From TrEMBL:
PANTHER family: DNA POLYMERASE III SUBUNIT DELTA (PTHR11669:SF8), REPLICATION FACTOR C / DNA POLYMERASE III GAMMA-TAU SUBUNIT (PTHR11669). This is DNA polymerase III subunit delta. Residues 51-88 are annotated as: Disordered. Residues 69-88 have a biased composition (Basic and acidic residues). It comes from the Bacteria. Gene3D superfamilies: P-loop containing nucleotide triphosphate hydrolases. Coiled coil: none annotated. The lineage of its organism: Bacteria, Pseudomonadati, Pseudomonadota, Alphaproteobacteria, Sphingomonadales.
Length: 319
């Protein structure tokens, strides 16, 4: 994914690199999908580079270490073979951190600096966090830590206190448009617009939404919040567009887009309508939290989403 919209983060990082004492631990904070992980890798490549020494790419650099989620039981051979579809555990266990610490007892391979990236650091198990804390308290010479986090509150306060924070705000719509034009040139204007609306400033999410072809859903959602759906006709169209057997990714993309439509509606709604929009948004947020762990009937879920959008419309006699 193209790095766009991180100019301030780059300025702060490069000022620190040019200073006399580079801080040894950094926490890259911001919404998921804003490019923090890619920034960490590019920044690490700059950090470990040394003039006159040929540098491999970050993913093959011996001085850029990125502890991985270990493979699930039975997936070890696929991991050893480099299979990109290997299933991995959800957390980073303490064994991964301890293996890393053993490597940190040696000198960097190509130059005087080494970078360690945890992406995301949110996934560290408690014991792994405690082990990492020891390295942050007494960092090996020339070693720098970059902790990518979408939810910094999940990190130990003692870890947060030892890190310098680099913030990554949501990407502007204009920058999102630039990214989609570069990364998804096949998407038409309506598809890009729907993806940007649903993504909430996250280019990673927007690129995922482009694959979901949300533009037709976006148009129906606009009609639902404007016109309501007294006779269920729009909800029928809406359900057909989602599909009879949508996977969870499509369901969640639809819910994200629905909430974004209501957020946009709130900016222009009359005082009388605002309470309806807020109530519908709250119900959609609750539904979004349930979808990853519940097996909803696809048709009923579509009708529920459509009904909540329609509930935000003012009754015709009031409107």
């Amino acid at each position: 994914m193209t790095l766009v919209g991180h100019e301030e983060a780059w300025r702060e990082w490069r000022r620190a690199m040019a200073g006399d004492r580079m801080h040894h631990a950094w926490m890259l904070v911001g919404p998921k999908g804003t490019g923090k992980g890619l920034f960490a890798r590019a920044a690490a490549a700059e950090l470990v580079a040394q003039e006159g020494v040929s540098q491999p790419s970050w993913d093959h650099h011996p001085d850029i270490l990125i502890p991985e989620h270990p493979p699930e039981k039975g997936e070890e051979k696929k991991a050893e073979a480099g299979d990109p579809d290997v299933k991995r555990k959800r957390s980073i266990p303490v064994e991964e951190v301890r293996a890393l610490q053993r490597r940190l007892t040696t000198r960097p391979t190509l130059a005087s600096r080494r970078a360690v990236i945890f992406d995301p650091a949110d996934d560290l198990e408690r014991a792994a966090s405690n082990a990492l804390l020891k390295s942050l308290e007494e960092p090996p010479a020339g070693t720098f830590f970059l902790l990518v986090t979408h939810r910094p509150a999940r990190l130990l306060p003692t870890i947060r206190s030892r890190c310098r924070v680099l913030r990554f705000p949501a990407i502007s719509d204009a920058d999102m448009e630039r990214i989609l034009a570069l990364e998804a040139p096949e998407a038409d204007a309506a598809t890009r617009s729907a993806a940007i609306a649903a993504a909430g400033g996250s280019p990673g999410a927007a690129l995922g939404f482009v694959d979901q072809d949300l533009a037709p859903l976006h148009r129906i959602m606009g009609r639902l919040v404007q016109e309501g759906d007294e006779h269920f006709a729009l909800r029928g169209e809406f359900s057909a567009l989602i599909g009879a057997r949508p996977d969870r990714e499509r369901q969640l993309a639809t819910l994200d887009l629905a909430r974004a439509v209501l957020t946009g509606m709130l900016r222009v709604a009359s005082p009388a309508q605002q309470s309806r929009v807020i109530a519908a948004h709250a119900e959609l947020s609750s539904l979004t939290a349930l979808v990853p762990t519940h097996n909803f009937d696809a048709g009923l879920l579509a009708m529920e989403i459509g009904g909540l959008l329609a509930s935000a419309a003012m009754p015709r006699e009031t409107a």
